[in-house]
Amino acid sequence: MREFNYNYLKYRHWDKDVLGYIGLIHEYKGKQQLYLRQKPLELDRLVDLAKIQSTQSSNAIEGIVTTNQRLKSLMASKTMPKNRDEQEILGYKAALELIHENFEYMPITPNVILQLHKLLYSFMPTSFGGVFKTMSNEIDERRSDGSIIVRFRPLEPFETPDAVERLCTAYNKTIASGEIDPLVVIPTFIHDFLCIHPFNDGNGRMSRLLTTLLLYKSGYVVGKYISLEKKINDHKNEYYDVLQLASNKWHEGQNDDTPFTKYLLGVILSAYRDFEERLNIVSNKKNAKEIVKEVFSVKLGKVTKSDIMEFCPTLSRSAIEKALRELIADLDICKYGKGPATYYILNI
Fold first, then answer.
1. Longest dimension (CA), the chain
2. What's the rounded Cα separation, in Å, for the pair 158 and 121?
3. What phi and psi values does residue 123 have, to the nearest 5 degrees?
C-alpha cells in the first residue's frame, strides 16, 4: 500500500533550479499585495480574461472544445450548453468560480474534493459526478495524430477512498507544521493525486482546480489573474513527459517527483512574471496607441490581435484596432496575412 508522509521533503536537497524558482516566487508574492491594493481596475479585467482562458485551456488539454464565440457566451451566462463538451466547460467554470470566491472556507478533505468533482459534472446527465471511481482506469495521453498511449496505471477502485483520505491528512499535517515550504508540498500533493487517479473521469481537470485551490490557500493567488491552465496547455507535451518521469516506481514509494515539482514551479513563476508585465503595460498613464506599441517591446516576433488583447485587458477591441491602424500608418509596425491568420511585426 502506497504511504503518504511528506516529512521526507524536509531532507530533500533541491537543485539550484528549484531553489531559484522558490526564491523568485516568494519575491513576486511580496509584490502581489502592493498590486492588489493599488491597481483594482486593471486586476478586474485580468480576472475576467483569466477565467475564460483557464476554463478553455483546462478542458482543451482533455480534448473538450467549443468555438471562441460560444465560449464567451457560455462564460457570460448568455446561452445554454448545446452538447457534452459545453456541459463540461460550464461545469469547470462553476467549480473555478467556487474556488475564486470561497477558497478560504474550503478545507482540503475528501468531501471537498468530491463536492468539486460533483460541481464539475453538474451540467451533465451523469451519475459519477462526486463519486470515486468504480472501475480501473489509466492515465492516457492523446497525441496530436489522434493516437493514445498509456502513461500510468493508478490505484484500483477499492484502494481509492482510503488513499485520498490519507493523502489529505498528510498534506494538512505538513502544511500545519510550517516546517516545509508549501511550494514543494503542493506539487507533491497534486502529483500523488494524479497517481491515485480517483475518479472515472475528470482527474486532470480536478488536479488543475486543486492546484489553484492549494495555491490560493497558501497566499499565491496569481492564478486568479494569469491562467495557469493556459500555460500548461501551451506546453502540454512537457506536462505529460514530467508526469511520466515523476511517476516511475510511484507504487513502490521510490519515485522522484522533482521533474513535476520543477515544471509546476516554472509555470507559477512564469505566471507571476506575466502578471507584473501586463500590469506595468496598462497601468501607466498612456493612450491606447502607446499601450499597444509597448506590447511589441515585450513580445518578440509575430504579434496577433489576440496577443494584444491579452496583454491589454483595459482596452476594447475597437481601441486596439484603431491603435494598430495608427501604428501601421506611422510605419512603426507592419501587417502580414489576412483574416484569422493576420499578425504584426515591429519595424526595426
1. 68
2. 22
3. -100, 10
**pLDDT tens-digit profile, the chain (348 residues):** 789 999 999 999 999 999 999 999 999 999 887 777 766 666 777 888 899 999 999 999 999 999 989 998 999 999 999 999 999 999 999 999 999 999 999 999 999 999 999 999 999 988 789 999 999 987 776 777 888 877 778 999 999 999 999 999 999 999 999 999 999 999 999 999 999 999 999 999 999 999 999 999 999 999 999 999 999 999 999 998 999 999 999 999 999 999 999 999 999 999 999 998 888 776 666 788 988 998 898 888 899 998 898 888 778 889 999 999 999 999 999 999 988 899 999 997
CATH of domain 14-280: 1.10.3290.10
* DSSP letters spanning 202-271: -HHHHHHHHHHHHHHHTT--GGGTS-HHHHHHHTHHHHHHHHHHHHTTTTTT----HHHHHHHHHHHHHH
Amino acid (1-letter code) at residue 256: D
In whole angstroms, what is the distance from residue 295 CA to residue 291 CA? Answer: 7
Q: What is the DSSP string of 186-215?
A: HHHHHHHHHHH--SSS-HHHHHHHHHHHHH
The architecture in CATH of the region 286-346 reads Orthogonal Bundle (1.10)
Which amino acid is located at 241 in the chain? D
Give me the residue spans of the domains in the chain: 14-280, 286-346
Taking the C-alpha atoms of residue 111 and residue 289, their distance in angstroms, rounded to an integer, is 51
3-state helix, strand, coil in the chain (%, to 5): 65, 5, 30
Positive or negative, the CA dihedral 263, 265, 268, 272 is: negative
